[in-house]
# Entry
Amino acid sequence: MSRMADSMTISGNGNISREELQKLREMMNSRALAKRRMRTGLRAAANVMMAFVVLLPLLYAVSIAFMPSSELFTTELNLLPKHPTIDNFVDACRNIPLLRFVLNSFIMAGFITVGQIISCSLAAFAFSFLEFKGKGILFMLVMATMMVPGEATIISNYLTVGNLGLLDTYAVLIIPYLTSAMGIFLFRQFYMTFPVVLYESAKLDGCSNLRFIVKILTPLTKSAIGAMAVYTFINAWNMYMWPLLVTGSDSMRTVQIGISMLNSVDAQSITLMIAGVVLIIIPSISIFIIGQKQLIRGMFSGAVKG
Amino acid sequence: MADILLKNVCKKFDNGRSVVDDFNLNIADKEFIVFVGPSGCGKSTTLRMIAGLEDISEGELWIDGQLCNYVEARERGMSMVFQNYALYPNMTVYGNLAFALKIRKYPKQEVDKRVHEVARSLEIEHLLKRRPSDLSGGQKQRVAIGSAIIRKPKAFLMDEPLSNLDAKLRTQMRVEFAKLHKALGTTTIYVTHDQTEAMTLGTRIVVMKDGKVQQADTPERIYRYPANRFVAEFIGSPPMNILECCVGQENGQTVLLLDEEYDSRFSGKRRIYLKGTLAKCLFHRYMGKKVLMGIRPEDVCEYEEAVSGGFADSCAGFTKRVKLREVLGSEVVLYLEDKEKNFVARLKPENKNQAGDFVELFFNPEKIQVFDKDTEENVLL
# Structure
């Protein structure tokens, strides 16, 4: 009652200061504020805990990479290195030409990414904007290739590239993966949400199909391209079977094979291998961090109208 | 500027469904043609066939004396304004306006000059650096028009360009379109389902239904002399009243006997005495037969007006109970009880009849249209 009278006096005088007003507001809102803060705090704590659980294997791997071998092979639980060292990284780079492998993987994954974006977007353009006989059947055929596992075609592909004399070259790593049904599907789904009236308007403006793709479609589907680029790059970076089969020399091997080369029967060192793994996941994680916004937007675009 | 001729044009889809059937129309240079009709009548499909966005299944399309069935859309020299503007969101207003010219490799200075000219004429010069997402509906529509006029096309094709705008802006833009057509004189084909737009803009209106042309004529003639019942009821708001009646003869004159229940209070007045060509036509072809009589709501009046108009004696007194009264300020619209649907009368604002009252109304015989009961075609056309 007295507080009410005070406030009435204050408003009646009309000379309430900013601080007083703030204090009054805080007092009135303190309960709701405390509740909100508690809720936010709990949510943040739960998120941090979940993130920690999910990232634990990765963080542990990073920790092992900095551990001397002697610390790992003990009966105690060593989560963090007591005597951190970078020897494992130095040894990993010394034992195998890791940088060369990284370069090879970059070249391969880079070309595959660019190639798939170009080929898949062109194919998806045809499937979504052009009208031609057998379009539906052709698209179904393309989709059907997704049902054939890669392993089923790997021998015939090997024989083909072997006969072409392409073994142990960059070309053999790149060419078979220059397009993908998944990429065509992804782009097509994205283009289906693109207003067809823009294509018609461009056609009447005198625009050719290629020009439309370059000038209008591509700039407006950046998020789909970003999503596709991240997805393709990571897949290509992680490829193991095909590069193992078609490359023989160190100058052509990719990182995934390189890592397995660290696992020698004679001298197996877990810390060395983990250091190599940590080194090679840096590029793929960087790509993901750079493109994560695009990836999420690209994956969900078209799911909801608007 | 272009003459456009559509000869027996048909559009059939792969599943055999026919959307446009035997469409014939000769569009003269500088005409403003409006395609109007209910949704799904094929008006937009016809426009898209002219634009080159749809293939023509059968028939011929001639533009300026050149057969254009297989000419690419970009080579037809048409420009189109779409319902949802179709502006490129990644380009500025300047970029949107200049796009068609840049594709045609116009010199940079010429592009710049034309963009500014068009922007000035449409009062959008201050918006040139903005992107379409920063514009209001009306501004977007102006930019869309600008993109269409900038390359001086042979004809403008407009596909319901005003339907996304609010009522006030629509009226404003309608006036702008009329001004633009007067200034440029370019052949224009305009698609709409709004009859007000059709009546106010078109030099000729093409009324369509189920892919067929019902009537192609000037707005006045379409309104006054509809070719069939569909046109009569589609054009005009409220639509034309249609009543079933019988053709007979009385005192040597052809009369229309209203097919109504007998009402002793108004006996002797339930007939309309006809004159002129209509009377002759009905006498020779429909004597004793049933026909459909059409009368516009504004051609229905009360006794005093019928007397001053000189047709009180030659016309029936039509008695009905008022169902609903709408006061529109300049007029009063009465909805009267009828067998199947509303009978509407548009009367002077002085009318005092309320819902539930009986009202006696008179028809101006000179404004009456008669349709064949079976074919629903106008007997005089």
Q: What stands out?
A: The radius of gyration of chain A is 29 Å. Residues 49 and 62 of chain A are 19 Å apart (CA to CA).
